[in-house]
Structures are given as structure tokens and as C-alpha cells.
Amino acid sequence: MAAEPPDLAALARGVALAPPCAHGGPAGRGRLRVAPEDFRVDEDLGFAPDGGPAHVLLRIEKRGRDTLAVARELAAAAEVGARDVGFAGLKDRHAVTTQWFTVPATRPAAEWRERAGEGWRVLEAAPHSRKLRRGTLRGNAFTLCVREVDADGAALAARLAAVGTRGLPNYFGPQRFGRDGGNLDAVLAWAEHARLRRGREQRAFVYSAARSLVFNAVLGARVAAGRWDELLPGELVNLDGRRSWFRAAEIDDVLRERLAGGDVHPTGPLPGRGESPEGAAGECEAAAAAPFAAVVEALATAGLEAARRPLRVRPADFAHAFDGATLTLSFGLPAGAYATAVVRELLATDSLPEDADDA
What is the pLDDT of residues 252-280, one digit of tens each? Predict the structure, then answer.
């Protein structure tokens, strides 16, 4: 009797929302985001205002507000369209965050200083020449409080040490896949029936979820095989801190040393039209992505260019402290990496709020 085909929707939810942990699974439980102040994010653009006359660069602190809502209010205040407001990334609503926005210079920078709205206030304002684009940031600094921690002390200490030294899988967080993973349903429907949501923003969410699904599937397979922080022959290798990569047909001692030092990383796919790894790395990637071949094909047909994302991430300045049953974590992550991926390697926590944004 032929085996029944897998339930693709269930498989997609598993690899996207509950991929395997790298360090043995959570050492206990705790509560995250009891209050917005328990999840603090500070955005680092990596550059300063340049004094140009076309825009105003605003550093804004927000609490309990999502990025898009604040952007709309800034647009109204500047008397421009919402698309004229720039920002580098989405930040969580259920948090206290600082991030940068640009608005067209319809009024002087001085008039923006100390301006405030519901749940947000301007901390800095300076002239700048260009609109901020998505992804144009160096990274984010996080301070997280996990409360009511109930964990095996030795196991948690081992997890903390492992994350601090080896790093962790660079999964896309559940926020990427929409409320209750709803964007995954849209991805599979699009791949099967060529039906796509109307509206530019809605299509972008589907494309993003589709690429993230395939990436998490490939990374999860490497984690399950114990090879997520190893270079395989044929690997497309990322240079740390850069959006560039090179092919390594063979892995020699020099590359292994650079890998150990964090200078290079193995990568996984953000599918589209473009090159793929070869050799053992290519075989592993192809096998993990095979159930989602229709998704990969749909992305290429839609004209997206293939890109790569590091399979691992090493938190910078990783530190922790206990105060009774509260664990405080502080660390930095590069742009696109998720703080919730760090937490899940340590502790199981209450579910994310359903309308949380990307970190």
C-alpha cells in the first residue's frame, strides 16, 4: 500500500513555528512580556544623521504601539503620505523600543524635538539627506526580563553558556508567519493555485513568509543533523556582518578556523532566481526544501532574486543576571535576527502576543 502524502499544512507549521532547538531544548519555563518594559529594544542604524536638507531623521521611543501605526501618525503630522515616512525595521508592539524614522523636511528638525503622540515620543531629530529603507540598520540591542522562571539550574546554566559561546540557529521567529501562522495558509494557497492577496503590503507578507518557511525548513534539518554551525562542501559562505557570500567547494583548516572565530557562517536559502549551494551542502538543502518545491518555484516565477541568510547567529555582549525568579538577559543581534530565538533555546515561555511584530 502506498504511503499517504504528508499533510503539507501541518508540516509547514511544524518547520516554521516549532523547529528543533540546538542545545537540548528548554531547561524550564518562564513568562515573557508580562509588561512592555520586560522587552526593551534599541535600534542601531550604524550611522549618524548627515545633515542633508531633504528629510528629518527622528529617534522615537514607543511603548505599546506598532511601527506602522506610529509611521502613519508621523505622516499625518508632516502632512505627507504614509509611504513617504521611512523606517529601517518593524519593532514589537508589546515592548518598549527606540527606533529611527525619516519624514520629509516639510518642517525644520527643531519643530520635531520633544513632539509626542499616544504611546510615543521623539527623543532626537536631525536633518538627513535620504529616506530610511527597510533593512538599513546594523542591528538591535535587547534587554529582556523572563519572570517566574521554573528551571533546572544546572541545565539552564549549560544553555546560557552554550548560547553565549556557540550561538544559536538563526531561525525566523513566529511573528514572521502571521497570527496563528495564518500567512502559511496564504503561502500554500498561492503556491498551489497561483492566488495571491491583493495589495502591495499583503503580497509582501506572503513573499516574506514563503521565503522564511523554506529557510526554517533547511535550517531545522541542519539542526536535527547537528550541522547548523558547520561548513559543508559546496557551501555558500557568509562573511560576518555583510550581505555577501562566496562558494566553498572544499572546507579546509583556514575556513574552519574562520568559522570558529565567527568570521564566516554557513547559509540557508531565501529562495528566488539565483545560485544554490553544491555538494553536500546542496544535497542537504535540496532534501529539506523538497516538500516545498512549489513554494520555491512560485517565488522564482514571481521574479524574486535569491539571497542567503546565515544559519547561525552569535549574540554580542551576551549577559544574564538572576533576581529571585526573574532572569534578565542583555545582548545584541544583527539586523533580521530574532530575540525570541535566543529565549526559546533557554526556556519555554508563554505564547507571543498574536499581533507582535518583527524584532
Answer: 999 999 999 999 999 999 999 998 999 99
Return the exposure string of 137-170: e unless at least 16 CB atoms fall within 10 Å of the residue's CB, then b.
bebbbbbbbbbebebeeebbeebbebbbeebbbb
State pLDDT tens for residues 299-341.
Answer: 999 999 999 999 999 999 999 999 999 999 999 999 999 999 9
The helix (run of H) or strand (run of E) holding residue 235 is: strand 235-239
| Active-site annotation holder among 38, 66, 92, 357 | 92
Helix, strand, coil tally for the chain in percent (to 5) = 35, 30, 35
Collapsing DSSP to helix, strand or coil, 312 comes out as strand
Q: Tell me how far apart the alpha carbons of residues 167 and 23 are, in angstroms, rounded to a whole number.
A: 10
- Which CATH fold would you assign to the domain 47-128? Pseudouridine synthase (3.30.2350)
Global pTM reads: 0.90
List, as one string, the DSSP characters of 155-170. HHHHHHHHHHHH-EE-
Per CATH, 8-29+166-313 and 47-128 having the same topology is answered no
Helix (H, G, I), strand (E, B) or coil at 344: helix
Return the domain boundaries, the chain.
8-29+166-313, 47-128
CATH pick for 8-29+166-313 out of 3.30.70.250, 1.10.533.10, 3.40.190.170, 3.30.2340.10: 3.30.2340.10
Element (H, E) at 215: helix 200-224
Active site residue 50: no
User: Cβ-count burial of 34 within 10 angstroms (0-12 exposed, 13-18 middle, 19+ buried)?
Assistant: middle
